[in-house]
Design a protein that fits this description.
Elements (H helix, E strand, L loop, with lengths): L3 E9 L3 H14 L7 E7 L6 H10 L6 E8 L5 H11 L2 E6 L8 H12 L6 E6 L6 H18 L7 E8 H8 L8 H8 L3 E6 L13 H15 L2 H31 L6 H33 L7 E6 L11
Parallel strand pairs: 1-2, 1-4, 2-3, 5-7
Antiparallel strand pairs: 3-8, 4-6, 5-6
Helix pairs in contact: 1-2, 5-8
The chain binds uridine-5'-diphosphate (UDP) and magnesium ion (MG).
Amino acid sequence: MKHADLTLVVPAYNERDNVRPFLGELRRALEGRQEAVEVLFVDDGGSDGTWGEVVAAARSWDDRRVAVRGLSLSRNFGKEAAMLAGLEAARGDCLCIIDADLQQPPAVALKMYDLLMASPDYDCVAAFQRERRRGGPTGALSSAFYRLLGSASGMEVLPDASDFRVFRRCVADAIVSMPEYHRFSKGLFAWVGFRTLPFPYVPEERRAGSSTWGFRALASYAWEGIVSFSTAPLRAVLAFGVVCAALALVMLLVTVVKRVALGVDTPGYATIVTLILFFGGAQLVAIGLVGEYVARTYVQSKRRPVYLVRDRVSSDGDGAEGGEA
Ligand code: UDP
Ligand code: MG
């Protein structure tokens, strides 16, 4: 199958026990439908035999309307890199990014596809969580983060959007054309624009395995998003410096006037030490912050590939080379 109406891009990191159930669910969801569908698993350098499962599934696949393909990356590059690899290799007219763990059911992906097909004015259908899976402080922090990112970057970022979305080829081409090394998909999708329909869904429980996203990973992901899409922190540091300098000037004037006009000395050992410590700290923070941006420029300037492919497989036997290439 050279052509597909829809490609499901499935990043999979240590998802061995989810590969077959995923394909089973998809097959059930496709019953009675006419579309040519391609499933593209991107094995993100896992160590649990996910790739073996994908190869076995592709080799034994017998449903001609669905092509099962797979890419195996040379190591774990992270979900963002896996998604890019998938988008670059997909052949479908429409694409869907969907997790391998069945938290995002294939049947919902097809509903989103139908909605996109019925909405010619739109180019993307983005699922958002109607009920947050992560409750408590992490959920609240996450909502606050998306509001902050939206206002810092001036982009329209859907607060509860996930990477789960269905979009036309024009959107995929736009995403792939962005050469950045540090990729933050929610920001990339917001940046490229196109008309996006939100689609509410309730995520299921993870079928097998465990999530790789702890609090630390989420925090560093959030930081990545801010630094990748906004230079507002640099401006904030600049503004802070200006305010401090202005305050220092006022203090200087007050001290001089008090000494000259009123003859009052201002003793202030504690004040001086506190101020030195405070501004020493503030300067290090500012340098560190600038460093974050410089480091990203440095990494980007090396122009290393975002991912490397180790192996490919396809149920229709013609490899998994990139779409039109
Ligand atoms: N994933 C990946 N590379 C990674 C981490 C995760 O491709 O380094 C995939 C994973 O296999 C899953 C999806 O990204 O299909 C979402 O990951 P996970 O379920 O751990 O995240 P959560 O659902 O908790 O946000
Ligand atoms: Mg998950």
